[in-house]
Specification:
two-stranded antiparallel sheet, Stationary-phase Survival Protein Sure Homolog, Chain: A, alpha/beta, 9-stranded mixed β-sheet, globular
Length: 262
């Protein structure tokens, strides 16, 4: 299914699929692709438009169209008219069905994907879809919507990608990486997903037709106090790396409910 525009299948190099939720035109995915291309065959399949906070939604009742677009210089990627999960699913099952994908990296996202926000994230969902499909996967986010220096995040993504290519990941587990938006990183912390959550508020606004509408805003309500958790680690200037999985079973409750006799 590949046109061959930029895929040469370099021998002895891993093949890495890159996706995101900010869209194929985002600067973060371009920075990531350029860095990973230094040591791997790179193929990009990403949403054609911004798809932040769509979670793990997939397209079922409308067609999905794909076109190859120039991302930079002579490098092309697949722009998918769908969600992050669509992009990964379509790439693995169809666009790259004859290729072995050694690793999937989703990112580099702008804005943190920490704590409870992780469940809304299209970036994390792209990596989750890769994991479901049996591909070792990493989600990478730069924790700012305005900071545009992706250098630290791209270099760390390459570094941890090489580790995962060597060590692998357990079945069903992916890594959620959040990089602080600072020039000097203090280090790396292996963290847990925090319990902090977004304190949602809706601004009531009026459009030019004098009609009322609502705009989601708010701020993060931070309750995680130690660097065992992703939010706090990032706030202190550390890269957080959180192993997560898509098994939502509450095993303690499962055991307790055996005695409910329902």
């Amino acid at each position: 299914m590949l046109s061959g525009k930029n895929y040469t299948g370099m021998k002895n190099k891993p093949t890495i699929l890159i996706s995101n939720d900010d869209g194929i035109g985002a600067e973060g995915i371009k920075a990531l692709a350029k860095e990973i291309k230094k040591f791997a065959n790179v193929i990009v399949a990403a949403p054609h438009t911004q798809q932040s906070a769509v979670g793990h939604s997939i397209t079922m009742s409308s067609p999905i169209r794909v076109k190859e677009v120039l991302m930079f210089r002579d490098f092309y990627g697949y722009a998918v008219e769908g969600t992050p999960a669509d992009s990964v699913k379509l790439a693995v099952h169809t666009l790259l069905k004859d290729r072995k994908i050694d690793l999937l990296i989703s990112g580099i996202n702008q804005g943190a994907n920490t704590a409870i926000n992780t469940i809304y994230s299209g970036t994390v969902s792209a990596a989750t879809e890769g994991t479901i499909l049996g591909v070792p996967s990493i989600a990478v986010s730069l924790t700012s919507y305005t900071y545009t220096d992706f250098g630290n995040a791209a270099k760390f993504a390459a570094r941890i990608a090489k580790v995962i290519l060597h060590k692998g990941l357990p079945k069903g587990t992916l890594l959620n990486v959040n990089v602080p938006a600072v020039k000097k990183i203090k280090g790396v912390k292996i963290t847990k997903q925090g319990k902090s959550s977004w304190d949602d508020t809706y601004d009531i606004r009026i459009d030019p037709g004098n009609r009322k509408y609502y705009w989601l805003t708010g701020s993060m309500h931070k309750i995680d106090k130690t660097m065992d958790y992703d939010v706090k680690a990032v706030d202190e200037g550390f890269i957080s790396v959180t192993p997560i999985h898509y098994d939502l079973t509450d095993y303690n409750m499962y055991e307790e409910m055996q005695n409910w006799k329902i």
